[in-house]
Every structure is written in structure tokens, then in C-alpha cells.
Amino acid sequence: MAGLQDAPIVNETTIETSAPVSGQSSQKATFHVGTRASLLARVQTDEVVKALRAAWPDHLFEIHAMTTTGDKNQTTALHKFNEKALWTQELEVLLQNGELDFIVHSLKDMPTQLPVDLQLGAVTKRRDPRDALVIKPSLVGKCRSLADLPEGSVVGTSSLRRTAQLKRRYPQLRYADVRGNLGTRLAKLDNPESEYAAIIIAVAGLDRLGMGDRITSYLSSSHGGMLGAVGQGALGIESRRDDRRVEELLSRIGHERSTFATLTERSLMRTLEGGCSVPIGVETEWKTDELTDELLMRAVVISLDGDEVAETETRKRILSRQDAEDFGFEVARQLVAKGADKILEKIQLNRQIIHDQGDA
Ligand SMILES: NCc1[nH]cc(CCC(=O)O)c1CC(=O)O
């Protein structure tokens, strides 16, 4: 496997495969699973492979971890690259040429437009999609929310979506870029010499790495007025469109509600972005009781300075992938009717100066 660092997270050869179960196909197959090499990516891939092993005890799974261009450029502000594909392209080539059978991604890092021969094969059960506020150790016990931070405090964020929404709600604070993987970002925060009083980081990433205890508070529409990134907290599995074998494999680990919610979010984003990433926040929630079973979606498109917003809240019954696609499109139209197009137009003009990477 040229170009791949084989990462024996789990040593496949030590996996004990039980004797063929009668009545089940006992044919053993080996699947090659691609992932980025970061710790979070590996933990996420283990989560997926564990579910697959439970669902398909006779199959074998080999994990191949790869350092991508995105991983190598953590010191350069991400908005200098205008392609989200930075994180995914190199793995996709290996999927296309058959060296890999599928790739496990953070769904939020997957572009909404995939190469024509590839597809989003499955979305597993989503974790908490919210962002978290994490404050620096010397402020623990003194500040519990963004509103508690002294005026002029520097908040580290890694996306235009986060910065724009926070500027609107907390204009008295200052915002600075913070880059690197989650561990690096936390280390920057914890360094007493650093400028950051707090950082904003995804809850799901912290939870998956067992660092949920660092969370000072959870941000949402009702706490801090912060909507999340499209697909945040979910894992997306990318596969070849013509691969029926992998399709069957993945059918046992997909989670329907997570799939419908995230497809809605991605459809909204795809409709609005027209090929470019935009600062857009979403919050989806299933409203289920004896009388209703609907997906509620809140969405916002916001100017980079936080001065202009288009926002909407709407709900719909979603029974299929097509319903999800249609709902996302409908929400996009509502946002446009509320002025999202004008906000986006302005950002497009600015893009000639600032290359907006969207969400990181
Ligand atoms: N681009 C960074 C990224 N991609 C996925 C996660 C973890 C959250 C998730 O799984 O959605 C993060 C970290 C962050 O946004 O703070």
C-alpha cells in the first residue's frame, strides 16, 4: 500500500474469529478501512470497526491510517486553503483505485459534493453535535460561561461559523484563531503564556478522546446562541458507488435518525454554498411523542462580523433520504428569502481577499 502508513491500532492477526455460524455465510472477507492518522480519527475508526466486527463476526477489517496534507499544515491558518477536500482527497484516490474499501471521516469534514464515483455509504449514530466552551485552568471556578469572561478576553476558535456567531452575541470579547488537533488546541489554552482565556471546540471530539471533563459549558441555540456545524458529531463512511458488497456491509451499522438529520443539514449546505463553504450554523432535533414525529431544524447564515444574519426554525416529518434532501433544500430557500443570499454574496466578494475555509 504505497503512501500508507499502516497503523496497527488493533492487530488484525490476533482477532479470534469464531467458528463459522451455521445458517450464516461463513465466507471470510477482508475489508481495508482508510482513516486519517490523527488520534481522533483513529478513535473514530475504531468505533466504526468495532460495530462492524460485532455485526459481521466472520469478516476481517484492516485499518490503514494516512497523514493527509491537511494534517501536515496545522500551523497555517486553515482559511488560506479554500478546499475542504484537503482532508479527504488523498484517501479518496486510494478508495477509487481499490486499495481501500471505505473511509471513515468526521462527517463535518466531508465536502457536500463527493467525486461522482463515491458516496456517503453510511452515517453511524451521532454523538453530541454541540460546541463546548473550555476555559483555561486559572479561570476554572471563576467563569462558567462566555458572559462571565472579563471584557477583552481572547477566545480561540477555529472556524468562521463560530467566530461570527460569537461576535454577534459577545462583542466585548476578542477572537483569535486556534489551530491544530484537539490535543494541541487544549495545550495552547493550558499554556499560562498563551493569549487564550478560553477556546471553543466540538463536544463530540472531546468526548471521544475521553476529555469531556474539560468542558466548561455546552453551547446551543439556547446557550450562547451558537448553532453547530453541518454534520458535527457524526461519522460518515465514504464508499464506492458501485460496491454492493460494502453497501451490504454498512447497512448493518447505519443509524437512520442520524442519517436523515445529517442529510438534511448537508442538503441545506449544498444548496447554499454553490461550491464554496459558507458560515452556516445548524441545530437539528427529533421531536417525537404520541402525536408527532418530526425533525426540527434551526439554521443560520451569518456575516463574518456577525452583524447580519438570516435565521429560520422549521420542522417536518422525514421518512426517507429523499425527504431529508427536500427538507434541506426547503430550509435553504427560507434562509434565502430572509436575506441569506445577500450575506453570501458579500462573503463571495470578500473571498478574493480572505479564502474562507468554512468550518474546521
Ligand atoms: N475540523 C475539526 C474537527 N473535525 C471533527 C471534529 C470533532 C467533532 C466532530 O466529530 O464533528 C473537529 C474538532 C472541532 O471542531 O473542534
Automatic annotation (TrEMBL):
CDD domains: PBP2_HuPBGD_like. One of its GO terms (biological process) is protoporphyrinogen IX biosynthetic process. Residues 261-336 form the Porphobilinogen deaminase C-terminal domain. Keywords: Heme biosynthesis, Porphyrin biosynthesis, Transferase. GO terms for molecular function: hydroxymethylbilane synthase activity. GO terms for cellular component: cytoplasm. Tetrapolymerization of the monopyrrole PBG into the hydroxymethylbilane pre-uroporphyrinogen in several discrete steps. This is Porphobilinogen deaminase. It comes from Baudoinia panamericana (strain UAMH 10762) (Angels' share fungus).
